[in-house]
Write a structure and sequence with these properties.
Length: 158
Amino acid sequence: MNENLLDDLSPEIQKSIRRRSLIPTWIKIFIWIFMVVGVFTIPVFIFGITGFNFVMSLYGYETNEALSPVGVLLTLLFLYKGIVSYALWFEKDWAVVAGLIDAIIGIIICVMSMIGISIGSMARTPFTFRLEIILLIPYLIKLNNMKGKWHELKRLKW
């Protein structure tokens, strides 16, 4: 059954509802964290090219070399997370789809880390449970559940 949850609301109320109100508080916190981190990825990468190195870590992968395979991967992940965060916060049409892609990529990379597949080398490490997966799966589920409402609210705003 495909019911429109917004049909019961008056047109004035429908127009005043913001997409941002669909996002739960815990995701909003991470949106701000990754927007800030996303802004710093470009300078960190440029500093890495010039010889300064920073410790970067995400999903069990860690490096202090910006130009290593892991460093480039982490820089791209942080940059993409910053873009997705910006899109969600500013209610872009493509934000939820980008967020779903972000969650899927994050889950895949996190699982690879957990089973010990190293990026950039053939070394294997023992199984390690990554706590990030505890947030990535609900993030994926929440974005998938709000996808329809997100696009519906866009249609109602105009």
